[in-house]
Amino acid sequence: QYNLETEKDPVVIVISTTGTGDPPDTARKFVKKIQDTTLLPDHFAHLQYGLLGLGDSEYTFFCNGGKTVDRRLQELGAQHFYDTGLADDCVGLELVVDPWIDGLWLALKEVFLLQKEKEGMSSDVDAVSSSLSAAPHVVHELNLSSEVQNLKLEDGGVRNSDVLTQKLVDINLVGSVGDTEPSLVHSVPPVSQSALNIPALPPEYIEVQFQDTHGENPHLSSLISEGTTFEVPVTKAVQLTSEDAIKTALLLELDIADTVFDYQPGDAFCVICPNNVNEVEELLQILGLTEKGDYFVCVKVKQGTKKKGATHPQHIPERSTLKFILTWCLELRAIPKKAFLRALVECTSDAVEKRRLQELCSRQGASDYTRFIRESNVCLLDLLHAFPSCKPSLNLLIEHLPKLQARSYSVSSSNLYQPGKLWFVFNIVEFPACPTRAVSWKGVCTGWLAELVAPLLHPNKNTLDTKGGNPSTEKVCIFARPNNTFHLPGDPSVPFMMVGPGTGISPFIGFLQHRQKLREEHTDWEFGETWLFFGCRHQHRDYLFKQLKCFLENGTLTHLKVCFSRDSSTAEVAPPKYVQDAIRLYAKEVARILLKEGGYFYVCGDKKHMADGVSDAVVDIISMEMEVDKLEAMKVLAMLREAKRYLQDVWS
Ligand code: FAD
After folding, report:
1. How many angstroms separate the CA atoms of 48 and 476, rounded?
2. How far is 367 from 543, CA to CA, in rounded Å?
3. 142: pLDDT confidence band, cut at 50, 70 and 90?
């Protein structure tokens, strides 16, 4: 739509990061284009831009999509008209996004004014100003590192009209008498006694009409824009952990034989999952809509809405039942954003509850929001329990709850080894009860899958034997999430090392199955050595794949190193606890394979602690073996990553 080659107006770029620091699919073509090395350093000299990167600092390459574009545009002569913002989902995107957007209006205004002046049309600036009059009065200097201080929550309207100078609420009304500790529902001074700066009420833009109960809900495939979906039966479910293990890991087998779904070992795929049925029922009840659950709802953009650029949310069908929307379309467990809290204030009748909701979305209550909403993982249902007089309308939920995302899983099998069968492995995610929630919860997808396959989990069937498989009526809807790099080396003679503790072992089972089959089929090929570092808590509770020994015995796996972090040992020299400790013991081999033999190094599993621990160990090994300082060693590791020989597939 825009031709950056000639664009004279300021350009705003908002870009997320995916995979291993890659730009999102929709930006790939663009990034590739600007990375063309034949472009001259003044290629974008005419361009002024502001960039907002969205990322998660728990991943190694934080905001790398944004950083890559920013760096390259700078190299090509483009100018910032506004400071780059890098928002971190780990602490809350809004901490940077909100002030960044606020400051953007002023920056745009300035750039337009300057442009007009240059064009000698300074008399026309009033028109520009008035076109921006809806913009907030912003803090002039935006210092993104002290974003909380700079949070400017008023949005639209005249500056001071949004400042609510409220009658001080008697704190005894907010919590139990004598309660001096703040909580989700209770505030203490100074917040409880402050005048509050609260955000402007977001304009409503969705209209829902209840129809009748006739018709059919859309197919789940219509919810997905990323490609073809496949509805496939679950043919096997195996519990890989013992009953006394801390986490429960399940392996599921899907029958993909009758589909064109294809994958390579190392790929991940997505499972479309519903919200928990009890939570949906509870929400219907709180909203007073239990009777309407099976009614079809027509969702439209409200005529004459003040919301700029309001469009029909892509993840909501134009016509489907209320239950369908709450079950398949909206992430009910999402942490409510401040704008949502602001909207909920208007649906709350009790004055004390109202005040607390105002506090939680106000500038003065920013740290309460972080502590009692974000860090406590509070969701809509928790709020509705805590603030019983809050009765939001359905359109508000549709406006503010994000899309229920499909969950990704790494394939744990090889199509060559077991054609038509796809394995994957997951831990059932469990959240214990807490002050804001009386009951424990399971993860949306893993909890649902566990319940779905419970009938298949008969103890006698608890085997990984690939033959047979139970005819099952349970089906799941999946679609591909191809991974372009986390694959076996193209040349089978190249050696490689795999590091996969816990469920991180999953893709490596696929690698090994594949490798075993290749070895059987091509006896004349040369195969490089293979190493696997696996770790778990206890040898007898969560050693997910004892069958690894078979790969070792038949030569598919050359070295298997396993460590147990919670088993006590009587050995004189304590054995390594974690995979990163085990890797350090084999420093010479790691250095030989990575630095001398052009080998590959794969890491899969827990994104923060394990993946960082492993890369630290590898940096130390490189530094020691090459006799270079740590900085040099980090550069070598960066080169290995760049060459796609140090590969990570990590998740939380
Ligand atoms: P959710 O309900 O989505 O909850 C998960 C997260 O939400 C928690 O970890 C936590 O951060 C947060 N959360 C939500 N509510 C609370 C609360 N009340 N208290 C505390 N925290 C809360 N997983 C595997 O097990 N195996 C795999 O092979 C695998 N492969 C993956 C591959 C890729 C490329 C990616 C991106 C992810 C992969 N994952 C894998 C992770 C998987 O996609 C899911 O995130 C995971 O299974 C949890 O999904 P869920 O819906 O059950 O949990």
Report:
1. 47
2. 42
3. very low
Task: Please state which of the four CATH numbers 3.40.50.720, 1.25.60.10, 3.40.50.80, 1.10.760.10 is assigned to the domain occupying 496-650.
Answer: 3.40.50.80
Q: Where in the chain is the domain with CATH 3.40.50.360?
A: 4-114
489 contact partners, CB below 8 Å, separation of at least 6: 496, 528, 599, 600
Please check the confidence at residue 558 and state whether its pLDDT lies above 90: yes
Q: With contact defined as beta carbons under 8 Å apart, do 366 and 375 qualify? A: no
445 lines ligand 1 (CB under 6 A): yes
Ligand 1 near 72 CB (within 6 A): no
- Contact (CB, 8 A) for 333 and 444: yes
Determine if ligand 1 sits within 6 Å of the CB of residue 405: no
Contact 237, 456 (CB under 8 A): yes
Ligand 1 centroid to Cα of residue 408, in Å, is 9
The answer to whether the CB of 608 is under 6 A from ligand 1 is no
| 456-460 CB contacts, 8 Å cutoff, 24+ apart | 456/234, 456/236, 456/237, 457/237, 457/238, 457/239, 457/250
Class of domain 275-404: mainly alpha
Q: How far is the CA of 452 from the centre of ligand 1 (A)?
A: 17
pTM of the model: 0.79
Distances (CA, A) of 550 to 37, 475, 513, 547, 554: 49, 31, 11, 5, 6
DSSP 575: P
483 lines ligand 1 (CB under 6 A): no
* Residue 607 CB less than 6 A away from ligand 1: no
- The residues, any chain, with a CB within 8 Å of residue 133's CB and separated by 6 or more, are none
**What confidence tens digit (pLDDT) does each residue in 217-271 have?**
999 988 888 789 999 999 999 999 988 878 899 999 999 999 999 999 999 999 9
